[in-house]
């Protein structure tokens, strides 16, 4: 009597069942593929961030260094909050040369601050500079007097600013860049730290990329297994 069960011979060409390693291989390939996609995204993002950082740095350096030198303007660091919120503390203002006759109410000007009557050593070239807004212009026999006030101040500056003390009119300002400029002026430590962090991050990404390439090479990389039984030719 037939039992209804076909005998399983060695030459039947059928596999005796997938081994645990065979079942884990697709999952391992999926993890490597996901890691490869994440790596590519991180690498592309890193390149974009570095490119933006370089472009912004070049634009800022041109704005606060090259352009003022070419045009005769001054790049000054704001040390007080008298012009907030228009110009915050730590900003760099670029004040270009201006004819006092062209200054108008609402303009922000840079001028020397000091009273010649208070000291015999007054020097308009070395006196502290102030950057405030013009709120009024008074014409006198000796020339124009500019009444100024900081946006955050409650009272106008005293005394009014003579036309001879005007050093420039503000063209533009870059918020908070003064802090970075001071750090670079006092020493390159901050710059070295940032460069070091970027270098370490770049090496880390490169190491992951090389490791991932090795895993994807045929016959290479850990976890690659071959089912010898499935490759045998049925006899």
TrEMBL record:
Major enzyme class: hydrolase
Organism: Actinorugispora endophytica
UniProt name for this protein: Signal peptidase I
Sequence intervals crossing the membrane: 37-62, 191-210
InterPro entries referenced in this protein's UniProt entry, alphabetically: LexA/Signal_pep-like_sf, Peptidase_S26, Peptidase_S26B
Superkingdom in the source lineage: Bacteria
Keyword Membrane in record: yes
Gene Ontology, cellular component aspect: membrane
Subcellular location: Membrane
Chain intervals for the UniProt region annotation (Disordered): 1-30, 212-235
Example of a GO MF term: signal peptidase activity
Biased composition (Basic and acidic residues): 224-235
Keywords: Membrane, Transmembrane, Transmembrane helix
Statement: the UniProt record of this protein carries the keyword Zinc: no
EC number: 3.4.21.89
GO biological process, one term: signal peptide processing
């Amino acid at each position: 009597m037939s039992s209804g069960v076909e005998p399983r011979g060695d030459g039947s060409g059928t596999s005796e069942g997938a081994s645990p390693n065979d079942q884990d291989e697709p999952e391992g390939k999926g993890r490597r593929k996901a890691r490869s996609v994440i790596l590519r995204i991180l690498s592309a993002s890193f390149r974009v961030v570095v490119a933006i950082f370089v472009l912004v740095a070049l634009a800022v350096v041109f704005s606060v260094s090259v352009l003022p030198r070419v045009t005769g303007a001054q790049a000054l660091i704001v040390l007080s909050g008298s012009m907030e919120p228009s110009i915050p503390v730590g900003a760099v203002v670029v004040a270009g040369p201006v004819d006092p006759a062209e200054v108008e109410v609402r303009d922000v000007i840079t001028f020397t601050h000091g009273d010649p009557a208070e000291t015999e050593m007054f020097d308009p070239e070395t006196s502290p500079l102030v950057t405030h807004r013009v709120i009024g212009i008074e014409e006198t026999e000796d020339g124009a007097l500019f009444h100024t006030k900081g946006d955050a101040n409650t009272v106008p500056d005293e005394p009014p600013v003579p036309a001879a003390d005007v050093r420039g009119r503000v063209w533009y300002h870059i918020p908070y860049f003064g802090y970075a400029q001071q750090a670079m002026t006092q020493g390159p430590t901050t710059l070295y730290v940032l460069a070091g962090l970027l270098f370490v991050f770049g090496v880390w990404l490169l190491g992951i990329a090389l490791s991932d390439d090795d895993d994807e090479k045929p016959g290479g990389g850990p976890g690659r297994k071959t089912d010898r039984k499935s490759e045998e030719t049925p006899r």
